[in-house]
Amino acid sequence: MGTSVTKKAAIIGGGVIGGGWAARFLLNGWDVAIFDPDPEAARKVGEVLRNARAALPALSDGPMPREGRLSFAGTITEAVEGADYIQESVSERLDLKHRVFAQIQQSVSGVPIGSSTSGFKPSELQQGAADPSMIFVAHPFNPVYLLPLAEIVPSVATDAAMIDRVKDMLRDIGMFPLHIRKEIDAHIADRFLEAVWREALWLVKDGVATTEEIDEAIRMGFGLRWGQMGLFETYRVAGGEAGMKHFMAQFGPCLQWPWTRLTDVPEFNDELVDLIAGQSDAQSGHHTIRELERIRDQNLIGFLRVLKERNWGAGRVLLEHDARRRAGADQTVLAEPGPVEFARMTVLPGWIDYNGHMTESRYLFASSETADAFLRWIGADLDYVKSGFSYYTAETHIRHLGEAKVGDALTGTVQVLMVDEKRIHLFIRLLRDGTEVATVEQMLLHVDMAAGKACAAPAAILARVGALRDAHAGLPRPAAAGRAIGVKP
Amino acid sequence: MGTSVTKKAAIIGGGVIGGGWAARFLLNGWDVAIFDPDPEAARKVGEVLRNARAALPALSDGPMPREGRLSFAGTITEAVEGADYIQESVSERLDLKHRVFAQIQQSVSGVPIGSSTSGFKPSELQQGAADPSMIFVAHPFNPVYLLPLAEIVPSVATDAAMIDRVKDMLRDIGMFPLHIRKEIDAHIADRFLEAVWREALWLVKDGVATTEEIDEAIRMGFGLRWGQMGLFETYRVAGGEAGMKHFMAQFGPCLQWPWTRLTDVPEFNDELVDLIAGQSDAQSGHHTIRELERIRDQNLIGFLRVLKERNWGAGRVLLEHDARRRAGADQTVLAEPGPVEFARMTVLPGWIDYNGHMTESRYLFASSETADAFLRWIGADLDYVKSGFSYYTAETHIRHLGEAKVGDALTGTVQVLMVDEKRIHLFIRLLRDGTEVATVEQMLLHVDMAAGKACAAPAAILARVGALRDAHAGLPRPAAAGRAIGVKP
Predict the structure, then answer these.
(1) pTM, full prediction
(2) What is the CATH number assigned to the segment(s) A190-286?
(3) Helices in A2-75 by DSSP H: which ranges?
(4) Which among A121, A259, A444 is the top mutation candidate for probing chain B, defined by the most B β-carbons within 10 Å of its own β-carbon?
């Protein structure tokens, strides 16, 4: 953040996966150069980027960094020049990937080259390479800009120190690098997906279930479980007090039962393709792919925010990413001339009520995000709360002045009206394009949480909030401050 | 609801699954009789019920029905007497299930008997039964009180009209009955689970990944996808504009690749059990099973609420369940003597902030839930909004008087202070055990949404809200009404 030099990622192959990588890097402040000979590449990447801009910022609880610069390169050499990281996402053909790696390593050396391959092992990717040590698997999951997982698979020939640096880079763009300890075809996750896919094809082919029924069997049941615990932790819980051994004793013998078509692969012919494509049309054809993408993204945002609220699983990755980004980003507040911008947010579909506007509790949510960032800045942060003290809201007066809609970019600013030992009187504005959509006036009380009553805040906090009050002393007092709700006679 | 006679479910087998069924029936207003010879049954069911009471009401946006009466029966005959529905959840042994069915059908006839079996086909369950037509598979997913899926599998001998009645009963307790069209070992979902389980055992046994790494590979990636779309819809989106056929052309050939250990089953011995149990301890052993259950439940509540906000997948099931329950439950409002209770809620972990109390925007959320129920009651419901008119909140004044904590039961009441053609002035109280934790004063404006300005509400709505105002005319005006936030000089 701040003074650091902008990093550059080169993306070779600009499809859904390459575009997703590009979006994740760009929105996290990296410059990105894409090479893809497809004349449609710019349009396709643009569509992914539009989806990502509407989605990824919704996972962040602080201002996003300035978006990086996107360019389309005419050659691989041009794309990788000066790159700190290179991601290959071309078609799943080994000869093509080998040619790409050869061209890259003719142009630059010592730069990490991750491959999005679903199936090839890193030792296969490295065959014939000028420098095998820089090549590894970095396998992401669609949509790349939302799902944190990247399977990182080195071979024995891969440079281990480079892999450590790469994992840190991926954490910088909010990902969860899962280091796979042994190379294996299809790594880990796709082996599961393939097992389920094979079984699902049988069920459709045999007329046991339609594609829609199979999807319901997943998303109404175990799919919900797997988004927050995986397979083993879920079964550990199912085993109950007796634990994992008990569960395995119960479930283990089933392995020998004829529950899946173990030894057999359905013939993959036009008839099967038509059957499945037809059922899929009947199931989902009333939505366009673009609509489904947006629905999927907003659902995933919702799940991820649920987990973030609980500091669990993928949500922990988001919290750690916020903390990384916050470090060092809090210093410029006093230099701002007016009310200070403490939060930036995008209005999400889940924030919308039946009127089609942002639902009223989300205005207070947006205000709380702003006040929380303010409190962190004055030193009343999580560590302070753990010490037994905090600021509580005593009263709030909200005025609704406009209607925020899906996709609106909102900023939250703070003006300090009054400070004394125990109280802070704030005036928060929620702005869209500089215009107020709501104002939120709040009285905060400094509280000794164990004693359950107000007490004086410490000098360090009072000094910091006092400095902000002094900086705001010359601002006009908002006309709405101190107003009551009333019915004029 | 209301005047309907309480129904009775008999639960045979009171383990985690039977207890989960019992909890779902009880919390949805059914009486439940459990038969389980285990002397620990009452304690075990009690623990499931405690979890369920802390979780299931959080999915509802209206008051829950009065909880049914739970009893433990000394015999199967006693348990099933007068039952409208019977669910068998005993151990996965066919001979035992046959004995249970025989005892049931010696006592009652014409009562549906669902089996929680994971693996047996209904035709197997029916072998030797006095009345096969009443026996079928009703396979739920743990935790039964939260996950909506129940796989309903009849055989050709099962009474089809009875199955339709059962599906409606299950919808009444908030479930999603998935009618499986052909009986097959392990139905649908467990075939997928078994395929993944087998592959996972190989990966652990071969040292490719630990249980924790496998769980991360699932929950950081495709697990999140599957909670909201299933397998086929996810891939339809991945196929992009070219659609499902394109996706299958890409992915199809992989079936022939050696990505999974198709033909082989790992030997299930003590060594494998110890390896997995040991890794699971290292991964999750710092949480007790009870803690993991609560974490899981709260995560699932979060996911389900996300989907409910979006009317998608399992969330649609919840919305439809609310609507079912609401029908006919709106009529008793005017009979209440004081401020009217319009909402009941349980404070969830996700509503808690870093101070350990309910986060401030959730007070307004709870108030909005109350006001929305009020608006539905006066006729300003979703259909009314679709006609182009609505009530918008103009101003809100919140006073925080107490600290709501996880698990607190809150009620929201409405007192109507003033009504005119365009405005409603409300005073909402959020109460815990009858004591105010917050008050929320609001001015609502009746709005022509297309014109974007206030206008007179129609006579029907004014009559209804006017009746409530008249009923409240004798109530004392709240001292806090009309107050402003201010700093005393």
Answers:
(1) 0.77
(2) 1.10.1040.10
(3) 16-27, 41-55
(4) A259
